[in-house]
Structures are given as C-alpha cells and as structure tokens.
Amino acid sequence: MLHFLSIKDLSKKDINNLVVKAIQYYHDNQFEPILTDKIIINLFLEPSTRTLTSFSIAAYKLGANVINFNPSTSSLQKDESIVDTIQSIAAMDPDMLIIRSSENDLSKITSKYCHNFSVINAGSGTTNHPTQALLDLATIMLYKKNIKNLNVAICGNTLLSRVANSNINLLSMFGANITIISPPALTTKNITENITVAHHLNPNLIAEQDVLMILRPQEERMMILEPQYNKERIKAHIYSSKKDLYKKLKINQITPTTLLNLKKDAIIMHPGPVNKNVEVMESVLSDDRVVINNQVKMGVCMRKAILKHILV
C-alpha cells in the first residue's frame, strides 16, 4: 500500500488488522524503533492539534524523523503554488507526506506527484478524514467488541463534516445501524440503505443508541453553503457567538437530559475540539460514558499502527 487517501483504499482485512494493532498499542504504547531510517513530513494547511500532534508522537514512538511543515513561514507566503511546494518536497525524497487541507481533492492531487513515497490524507475538505474514522472504530471496539448491528447516531452538521462522511463509509462496511441527526439543510448526502435520517434528537431515539457521536458546528465551512450561510454573513457577525450559531442552525445540543435517556453502557464520542456549552453542555463531559480523551489516546495508537502498516 503506497497511499492512504480514503477508507475505500483499505480492505476489511486491512482495517481489522489495524484495529487489533491499535488496541494493542492502546494497552502497551512503548517506543518501537522500527522507522529510524524514515523521514515523515507533516504538511498541514489547516489548524490542527490532535491530528498533527498524534501523527508526530506516533512517528516518534516508531523512531522516525519528523518534519512539521509550517505554511506561514514557507514559500507559500511568496505566492508559490501548493502544487509547486509539493513537487519541491517530492524532489527531497522523503518516505511519507501527511497532508491536511480545506480542499476536497488536494491529497489525491498530491499523490499524483509522489511516486516513490507514501501520502496519507489527514483530513481533506468536507469529504474524507480516514484516520479519524479508523481511530473512532478502534475506540468503539475497545468498549463494544463488535460493530455489526450496533446502533450509532452521528449528530450535528453532517453535511460539512469529513469525520461524519468517513465514519459513515467505515461503519457501514461492518454492518452498524447508523442514524444521522441533522437539520435538513445540514444533512449529509452520503446516505445509503442502512442509514436512518432524523432531524431531532428525541428521547426514544437517544434510548436506542449504543454510540452517540457528536460533531462541531463546522462554522469555518459555512461559507460553502451559499447563499444561506455565505462568507459575508459570517463576517458580518450575524451570529454573535458559536452558541448563537448552533441555536440558529437548530442542531441538537447534548445536555444532562440527554444522559437521562441514554443507555448505561452507551458511549459518547466527539472528534474534538469540543465547544463547551455549544454542541455539548460542559456538565455532560464529566459523565463516565464520555470517552473523548480515550479517543485522543487511540489517535496516537491508530496512527502508529497505520505508519507501521505502510512503511514496514
């Protein structure tokens, strides 16, 4: 396997192997110097904490040499195109390029210039975030052991969420019963036969779920939805705060009342960062069913498993 751009690049066998390995690392994440001769470049053109840091730590744990490319101090500030930047990086002969971008197709375009080393998609536009979906699957398996017939609700702005779309593709492969809970204008188009769509997180729906996956409002991508949520309206501060934005978009908020209707063995997930008191009330985060920090830990473990899978 040379490039990893979407969930569709992996077989079910590959995915099962990665999940098993990631869970092993979750329980024993020691230094394993098997990539000491490898150079990995992180090319992140969007802000990131969890994804960038977890890829870097995963690489260090495997002994790789890591270079974090900073776009703000690069020749991109001198009007160099991103394609020219990528071609220059390719000429330096690294072993892997990990790329994140607001553009849907940039990782795919990048891979066309990278013939002798691997490209990993660390999040592209609104379409793909395959490593996040894999770490989410591994986190679910940590608690639930089996995905088939598991009830998973993905709640929030699913239309603009690459996390939602990658999770839909991945969890569908393993037979999960997926419910999308979004306002009509913010509901993903990635709907298949095994997916139920709802617009309100009602008590009966909550009570059925084994996994409740919450998403951010994705307000930085609202400009895509012209003319209803165009850039000018966002800039004009029509919405005085994220909380106001969330309320006006009519996306369900997770509150203590939500917890009252949720199964005792259900889990609540969020890819981060959490906007406290926006999509999730702060008081909810202390509930034992919230496994967000364990997702973050699994992020290092899964990305370590992915690097080993590709480079060894």
TrEMBL record:
- Enumerate the spans annotated as Aspartate/ornithine carbamoyltransferase carbamoyl-P binding domain: 3-140
EC number(s) on file: 2.1.3.2
Which keywords does UniProt give here?
Answer: Pyrimidine biosynthesis, Transferase
One GO MF term: aspartate carbamoyltransferase activity
Per the UniProt record, one Pfam family is OTCace_N
* Pathway the protein takes part in: Pyrimidine metabolism; UMP biosynthesis via de novo pathway; (S)-dihydroorotate from bicarbonate: step 2/3
Residue span(s) of domain Aspartate/ornithine carbamoyltransferase Asp/Orn-binding: 148-309
**Catalytic reactions on record:** carbamoyl phosphate + L-aspartate = N-carbamoyl-L-aspartate + phosphate + H(+)
Q: What does this protein do?
A: Reversibly catalyzes the transfer of the carbamoyl group from carbamoyl phosphate (CP) to the N(epsilon) atom of ornithine (ORN) to produce L-citrulline.
User: Which family is this protein grouped under?
Assistant: Belongs to the aspartate/ornithine carbamoyltransferase superfamily. ATCase family.
The name this protein goes by in its record:
Aspartate carbamoyltransferase
Native source organism of the sequence: Candidatus Xenohaliotis californiensis
* Gene encoding the protein: pyrB
